[in-house]
Amino acid sequence: MTQTAAVLLADVACHAKYVPSRYIRPPSSRPNIADVDASGSAIIPLVDLRDLSGPGRAAVVQAIGSACRGHGFFQVANHGIPDDVITSMLRVAREFFRQPESERLKMYSDDPSRTTRLSTSFNTRTEEVASWRDFLRLHCFPLEDYVHEWPANPPAFREAVAEYAMNARRLALSLLGAISESLGLETDWLAAALGKQAQHMAVNYYPPCPEPELTYGLPGHKDPNAITLLLQDGVSGLQILGQNGRWIAVDPVPGNLVLSNDRYKSVIHRAVVNNSTERISVPTFYCPSPEAVIKPAPALVDEEHPAAYREFTYGEYYDKFWDRGLQRESCLDMFSESPICDPI
Ligand code: OGA
Ligand code: NI
């Protein structure tokens, strides 16, 4: 009798006593969870956005600028997304992944160019080692172009996700405004540079893992977009690489930037898994539209600061990101004007 192998990790993980070999990292690239910088979280900036409109704006902009120059990562308080919107988003995410395999598989595709799809790991077509994650990816802007593609079940899914996505967009644009100002640019400079703009969402599902020290939820990487807002349930797992080269565990909302001619760097981060509790995270990736040309703001280029990267379209960059299977932490170096490593 033939038995079909499970396609999604959730349906492997629920029976697994050991990590199957395709998820096991070579010893030199395992998470080393015991070596996380326990005091590191104290240095992650927390920016209170309450004063962003009003006379306190300059101070908030300055705090955001310094966070971007430092880690490229910060948490925000008073971000304006209502608690019930967040709770509903996480509830429908959990309900989606608790559905029977047959219902989840209706959304399955391993084609990264699909605008709505459920998949597993990162890119099963190109990667050598798999990651301990299933994920649903959705395009969210303009909403009316995509909502009809989204999962019809659970029944509350579309409404709850649309509400969260609209709120996340508002926050992303408000942060991009503050970040533009922090670079000495017009408030709407970064938003305009994104062209028609795009917004993608991942709903990441990390099942409990019997041997979390052998694998990752996601290995170290930089996100390939202008800014990421990360919503997490209460289970920790996100870590960022600190300036001292040690990993720092965080409970966060990160910001993550390109377009600044290297003045602001994108944070390297990863997700580790644990052996007791499933974890859900919902990153919103605010991005340029595929045809937008990525190049530095003219005001940030002069003789002393020549353009660090050749111009490219976001579509070109995005395709490279998915092809590479997170083998290197950043794919921006492939566009560098002064390559330090061999292009692959
Ligand atoms: C991602 C990511 C981190 C997390 O999806 O790009 O970095 O904590 N997720 O799930
Ligand atoms: Ni990421």
UniProtKB/TrEMBL annotation:
Coiled coil: none annotated. One of its GO terms (biological process) is defense response to oomycetes. SUPFAM superfamilies: Clavaminate synthase-like. Keywords: Dioxygenase, Iron, Metal-binding, Oxidoreductase. Pfam families: 2OG-FeII_Oxy, DIOX_N. InterPro entries: DIOX_N (IPR026992), IPNS-like_FE2OG_OXY (IPR044861), IPNS-like_sf (IPR027443), Oxoglu/Fe-dep_dioxygenase_dom (IPR005123), Plant_2OG-oxidoreductases (IPR050295). It comes from Zingiber officinale (Ginger). This is Fe2OG dioxygenase domain-containing protein. Residues 197-288 form the Fe2OG dioxygenase domain. GO terms for molecular function: dioxygenase activity; metal ion binding. Belongs to the iron/ascorbate-dependent oxidoreductase family.
